[in-house]
Amino acid sequence: MSIYRNAVWFVKGLQEYTKSGYEAAAKHFAPSDLEVNLSGRSFMITGANSGIGKATAQELANRGGTVHMVCRNKSRAEAAKEEIVERSQNQDIHVHILDMSNARQVWEFAQSFSQSSSVHVLINNAGCMVNQRELTEEGLEKNFATNTLGTYILTTALIPALKKAEDPRVITVSSGGMLTQKLNMDDLQFEKGTFDGTAAYAQNKRQQVILTGRWAAQHKEIHFSSMHPGWADTPAVQTSMPSFHAKMQAKLRTEAMGADTAVWLAASAAATKQPSGLFFQDRKAVSTHLPLASSRSSPQEEEKLQAALEEFALKFKP
Asked: Is 201 tagged catalytic?
């Protein structure tokens, strides 16, 4: 089944996820959707110093938003901030240093941020694809710790602050790669069989899409969405998937194209006219499953995922 899923997904990707796929979709965009003034609105973006995260930060800064860049590397974050400020002439850009794979740190950051600042929009963009199985200092598999548990803790810890804001939103940058995966509750940390970093990443991205749907049902005051940026030419793709990058380079989207839907979901009035909890590609809600792919999970399994993450989260809560 996974061979079928991978083949169908790759054909779909060549048509839709590439630069030409974006250009075809963009013919139907309403340019006025992003003609907005974001002054007075606060945006938190994880992994904001390069790639999709940086491009998103730039677009929001250009429109006057207050941007909180949550990054792991201080020097790279400061360099990115300087560039964003220079291009946007917006001084309201702030850097916060945080390793999203460290659960305790994520808790501490979210708690202290909530006490000192407001947030209208959270963009869960930070992610990693580690191709060898590696444990964090807290003993968690690194992809799971960063992509799923870090995202879970940051989002749930900021929900009370988001509920105090006007028009609060949470956007999670997932990946179309999740279409190749069915939720696997038996092996959350990839301890069984041969480790495959690409499959682990795609499994994490499936988990993010499931969480988005569950949060939307549980927190009606907040607009939740997940999205696929398409196949973009980012530093992360170059380092994590070098052979894919080499083969596909001419067809890959720019970082700005990859960020477009995240920006639209974060900033436009049109986005919140869509129901909460959906998965978007090129400003349109799309299916979270390939045809005939048997990738759906039961509500019980999805509930089990949330319960397991809550248990992990509480274990590391300060």
From this structure: yes
Confidence check: pLDDT of 184 > 60? yes
Across 98-124, average pLDDT: 98
Amino acid type, 225: S
| DSSP 8-state code for residue 198 | H
Q: Give residue-wise pLDDT tens across range 121-173.
A: 999 999 999 999 999 999 999 999 999 999 999 999 999 999 999 999 999 99
Residue 37 sits at φ, ψ, to 5 deg, of -105, 115
79: left (phi over 0), alpha (psi -120 to 50) or beta: alpha
Read off the tokens for 261: 């839907």
The helix (run of H) or strand (run of E) holding residue 285 is strand 284-285
User: Contact 159/316 with Cβ under 8 angstroms?
Assistant: no
Cβ-proximal residues to 105 (8 Å cutoff; 6+ apart), any chain: 98, 99
- Report residue 46 as tokens: 């994880």
**DSSP calls for 91-156:** --EEEEE--TT-HHHHHHHHHHHHHH---SEEEE------SS--B-TTS-BHHIIIIIIIHHHHHH
- pLDDT given at position 234: 85
Return the closest-CA partner of residue 49 out of 63, 67, 22, 34. 67
The per-residue pLDDT for 45 is: 98
Mention every residue, 6+ apart, whose C-beta is less than 8 A from residue 144.
Answer: 188, 189, 190, 200, 204
239-268 pLDDT tens trace: 877 887 788 888 999 999 999 999 999 999
Nearest partner of 208 among 189, 191, 228, 193, judged by Cα: 228
Angle at alpha carbon of residue 48, lines to 146 and 227, rounded to 5°: 70
Would you say 63 and 36 are in contact if contact means Cβ atoms under 8 Å apart? yes
